[in-house]
Amino acid sequence: MPHPQEPAGTATLTARDVTFSYGKTEILKRVSAAIAPGRLTALVGPNGSGKSTLLAALARFLSPSSGTVELDGRPILSQPTKAVARRLAILPQSPPMPEGITVFELVSRGRYPHSGLLGLWSAADLAAIDHAMAMTGVGDFADRPVSGLSGGQRQRCWIAMALAQETPILLLDEPTSALDLRYQLEILALLQNLSRRHGRTIVIAMHDLNLAASHADQMVFFRQGVVHGAGATGDVCTAAAIEAVFDVAVDVFVDPRTARPVFVPRLPVTSEGGRDD
What is the pTM of this model? Predict the structure, then answer.
């Protein structure tokens, strides 16, 4: 039996000319993106740019108006739900919280794609659940109701549920939004480790540009429903790209420890050289 959290084989995920509309409003406009296997990819862009919509389409939560999403080379919409769930896990930004559910019960829901007809937990299921809780630091309150935890603790429980699913592809929409800085860094380091050491393909939609640039291997920039640049972080994450996508001028510095870019917005200054409040 493979160690918990090891990927269940290499998987591929590709969007081909995906268009999605709400009514008459196009949110995605012929978006094509090949997700790099075994890498951590960040989808970044302004609010409403389409990054979360693409994530939902990649996860089969949304059906494109045109174009296709392919999982392992086949249209994802034509594949059985449980088969997809063994290959791909998604953590939405605001998942519904079942009333009264405990941490263990929530995390154990990640084992649904692997369960048999009777729904009994196997030794492999329990090992995966325990390992997911340990990796996210929620094992100490496994028997507590999730509703009684802090926002950051609840978010880590949801991430543990996704990890317990043991899929080669993991999609997360703003996974650090409810966490303080310490846990933001811990969760991103965890996801980075899953990608680099365990071969997971991980896609994150994020608002925090510097956190994305400091952890992602690949970045895809969105603006008004169109891919505005994609590739290795060091190649596409430039001051010119940030200004074009976000309409904000930035200065770029290099972190001396990681050689990753760090972006600082250029604030307006007064004639005396101070900040214009």
Answer: 0.86
